[in-house]
Amino acid sequence: MPTLRAIIAAAALAPAALSAQQPAPPRAADPVTPAHGTAAITAADVQARMAFLASDALLGRNTPSPGLESAARYGAAEFARFGLRPAGDSGTFIQRYPYAQAIIDRAAVTFRAGPAALVYGQDYFVVPGNADSVGGKAVYVGTARPDLVMPASVSGRLVVVAAPDTLGSPESMQRWQRNLVAALTAGMAAHAAGVIAVLDPAFRGAAMPMLAAMTAQESAPIPLFAVLHAAFAPALEAAGLDLGRLRAAEPATPVELPLDFLLRTATGRIATRVPNVVAVLPGSDPVLRDEYVVFSAHVDHVGVGRPDASGDSIFNGADDDASGTVAVLELAQAFAAAPKAPARSLVFLLVSGEEKGLLGSQYYAEHPTVPAAGIVANLNADMIGHSRPDTVFMIGEEYTDLGTRAQQLVRQHAAELKLVIAPDLWPNESLFTRSDHYSFAAKGVPAVVFSTGLHSIYLTPADNPETIDNDKLARITRLLYLLGDEVANAPARPKWTEAGRARLKLQ
Fold first, then answer.
1. Which helix or strand (DSSP H or E) is residue 51 part of?
2. How far apart are CA 134 and CA 189, in angstroms?
3. Structural domain includes residue 344
4. Which terminal CB of the chain, N or C, has fewer other CB atoms within 10 Å?
């Protein structure tokens, strides 16, 4: 999920030079199956697509990377094979957007807290921001957590947070990453100048060089400096503050820190353009065809890192999110093979940059290749191949009437789907804001994400094709087909509920 999600892989990530023979994707020359509707969506098709998209040869589909480009070309070739209309740039299926890969001048990176000068890659790591240098006094605002909200008074200032958890276990890593993302997000929302996250006292300093190597190529609107507790505490002690006591308290108002800070990243950037893949199936109704239902998933993952205990260093991202990518391709094939298109048009969207902060979906939401006013719904799939075979989570179910429609469909098609739509089991994870549907929801488009939830191999090299429940993935994809078909043919557009309007502050 966004911005710092790649860091969690870094228990940690380090540069690696790998080469592999790229397997051929499922043969593009194969004819589209004559089956249509949910019958066209099969576990065998799912397995074949997954074997390519989550193969070692794509080296984890990082944004940007040759593996990501291979996955995008495959998606475009499949959309063309299905006879869909290109909806990218210049009559192609590819929409490119700018991406600036940060390159840090390691010798010039600076962290000064009063007279103390800390050592980059030993005492702290940096996610660079748009400004190379920030400074001045800072305020402590409490513990980083998903519901953290910083007051307006921190606008333009540096903020300091306590970041709990370590890289000691998958669960702890997930909480650690979630908390750093929350701190950065809250700082951005409050227009802070930058965020200093003081890591847990138990956080191992041995991981710092690898984290610094990885995050040097990340970027965010404001910088995040993550510093070891033991390195930061003496600077506060010299100014008369006890960092341990400060961490233990949850101040009602920000605590002024009597130190002058100077933080410098000295960042250069390599500009490139990375791909989304977009196709349209025109609707059959002469009026409603100007409205669109968008199916989406992210095709990227986090790349390559240090080998795990088994020697595997490639984060293949089979569940996250080759599973959603496979679903969108299966949906495109099934709808394209139908004798008649739905009344409304359908958009099939594969985005990149999700792991960097929902970048591809945000760009598409800002620069849609169909009329923005015509987009009536977004059905997003992110991690739909794991966990209990009968359960899927519909994050945001209560915010639109899409939830009611989906529940009706699982009852009506119980024998085929064999699914239960369960409530969100992770309310503290703020999953509604952490996948690509949120880019549409923020524009006022009713949007939900289907997921089978977090699991022990999330963001590890063990997320491989053989761990996927292909039958379950196919059944969830059939549910998406039925819901998309229902929305595309219904007389009325989907609507926000009162809870959804309140959640997104819609008028």
1. helix 43-53
2. 17
3. yes
4. C
Judge whether 39 lies within some domain.
Answer: no
Q: What is the pLDDT of residues 348-368, one digit of tens each?
A: 999 999 988 899 999 999 999
Instruction: Tell me the HSE value of 115 on the side-chain side, using a 13 A CA sphere.
Output: 4
> CA-to-CA distance for 101 and 91, rounded, in angstroms?
27
Q: How far is 395 from 441, CA to CA, in rounded Å? A: 12
Beta bridge partners of 257: 138
Q: In the listed set 225, 245, 265, which residue is the last one of a domain according to the structure?
A: 265
From 265, 290, 309, the end of a domain falls on 265
Could you give the CA distance from residue 245 to residue 202 in angstroms, rounded to a whole number? Answer: 16
Residue positions counted in the chain? 507
The answer, yes or no, to whether residue 151 has pLDDT greater than 50, is: yes
Residue with tokens 């509920």: 497
How many independent structural domains does the chain possess?
Answer: 2
The pLDDT value recorded for residue 123 is 96
Q: What is the CATH number of the domain that holds 150?
A: 3.50.30.30
Do 93 and 110 belong to one domain? Answer: no
Is 138's pLDDT higher than 70? yes
Reported as a single tens digit per residue, the pLDDT across 10-32 is: 333 333 323 334 566 765 444 44
